[in-house]
Amino acid sequence: MLRVSPVSVLNFFEVTTNISRYISSKKLLDKKYLLPSFAKFLNEESFADFFMAYDEGGLYFHVRVNVPFTKVNSPEFNKADSIEIFLDTKDLKTKGHVTKFCHHFVFFPEKVQNSFGKEISRFRADDMHKLCNPSDLKIEASILKDSYFMNIFIPQSCLHGYDLKNNNKLGFNYRINRYSQEPMHFCASSKEYPIERNPYLWATLVLG
Q: Which segments of the chain have a pLDDT < 50?
């Protein structure tokens, strides 16, 4: 008997959402910075709150994971507790592959190899450029009894092609991993596609 895996309704629509400019006098926990959750459309458990803002200096994130921390794992980070962020600084939806403007970061609630996070982008040979230094990423992590949260700043110097004067859109997705549990995504699910290799499936973020 032929079995067809369910396909998410999000795969048939372009997901677009606005992102607010970061105001240093306000906490990133302000509701205006909270991204919508599409977990129910992806048939996933919603177990995290994801906040995001921007300015000319880079991108700001606050991620609150509302389940207990278990463990980190390297190099198989996606099989333990970690947060992955996917960014395309040009939002090139016409490209069916990763370009030099695409970035893949992973962040940990505990230090792994003396760092809370790093860039792990994989470019084609003709798009190859140096990955950002992990020390350039500004990361704070706090583990509580029943949850953990992370404050993350990715500076402009780590985002090849980030230029607000000429482009106010970003391609974006995230994957929040849990040990021995299913992950949570923003829009496209890795259960259906290798999202790290298909940036045309990522959402569009409008900055401003």
A: 1-7, 9-10, 12
Domain 30-207, architecture per CATH: Sandwich (2.60)
- This prediction's pTM: 0.91
Of 204, 193, 205, 1, residue with least CA distance to 97: 193
Distance of alpha carbon 191 from alpha carbon 202, whole angstroms: 14
For residue 152, give the nearest of 82, 89, 204, 97 by alpha carbon: 82
Give the start-to-end residue ranges of the domains of the chain.
Answer: 30-207
**Integer Cα distance of 116 and 108 in angstroms:** 5
Q: Are 126 and 199 in contact (CB under 8 A)?
A: no
The rounded distance, in Å, linking the Cα atoms of 48 and 31 is 14
DSSP structural state of residue 26 = S
- For the beta carbon of residue 17, count every other beta carbon within 10 angstroms: 15
Q: Which of 82, 89, 145, 148 is nearest to 115 (CA)?
A: 82
